[in-house]
Design a protein that fits this description.
Strands 1, 2, 3, 4 and 5 form a 5-stranded antiparallel β-sheet that branches. By secondary structure, the chain is an alpha+beta fold. The protein starts with a helix and ends in a 10-residue tail after the last helix. The protein contains 5 helices and 5 strands. It comes from Streptomyces scabichelini. InterPro entries: Mtb12-like_C. This is Low molecular weight antigen MTB12-like C-terminal domain-containing protein. Pfam families: Mtb12_C.
Length: 174
């Protein structure tokens, strides 16, 4: 992944998470006031045509990225499973647990809108985070294939954890 792509990913994720941080609600479990933008329906686009750099089975790879991304960012997904869905997740297990326990980020869900493969083992993932059903602006992160499984990339997860502010960051995220 190039530095430019990594910087764009961090900027996109940071912008979305800044809004998530502000969507904490009024303390009674409900978001504060009406949504500042109309809720947008999530639509998935068809995967782009296969290229020399795309995975061999584009449809299967796209489906796996979508499924694993949405499972990683689901409040009811067990910590152990989230760790398995993050690249090098065992090394970041304390951060994954803290993220899942965070009062806002731990309740966020993701809906994947588009997956574009940069190589046969990396993909740009366009997604929307929601908090209690309230969508935030679309963000872009990265997925990587590790040991035959598509996972959330470390830079994407680190950017979200850093935006939370109260999660102790692993050395790789600083």
């Amino acid at each position: 992944m190039t530095r430019r792509r990594s910087a764009c990913t961090v900027a996109s994720v940071t912008a979305a998470t800044a809004l998530l941080a502000g969507a904490c609600g009024n303390g009674d479990g409900n978001p504060a006031g009406p949504s500042p933008w109309p809720p947008a329906a999530t639509t998935r686009t068809s995967p782009p045509p296969a290229t020399a750099t795309a995975p061999g089975d584009l449809a299967a790879a796209t489906a796996e990225v979508e499924t694993n991304w949405e499972r990683f960012f689901h409040p009811r997904t067990p910590i152990k499973e989230r760790i398995a869905l993050l690249k090098d997740g065992e090394q970041l297990a304390p951060m994954v647990a803290a993220f899942a326990a965070h009062p806002r980020y731990g309740q966020a869900e993701a809906a994947v809108e588009q997956v574009v493969f940069a190589t046969s083992t990396t993909a740009d993932v366009t997604y929307t985070l929601t908090l209690r059903g309230w969508p935030l602006p679309t963000a872009v992160g990265n997925a990587v294939q590790q040991n035959g499984t598509w996972k959330v990339s470390v830079p994407t997860f680190c950017a979200l954890a850093q935006a939370a502010g109260s999660i102790a960051l692993a050395a790789r995220c600083r």
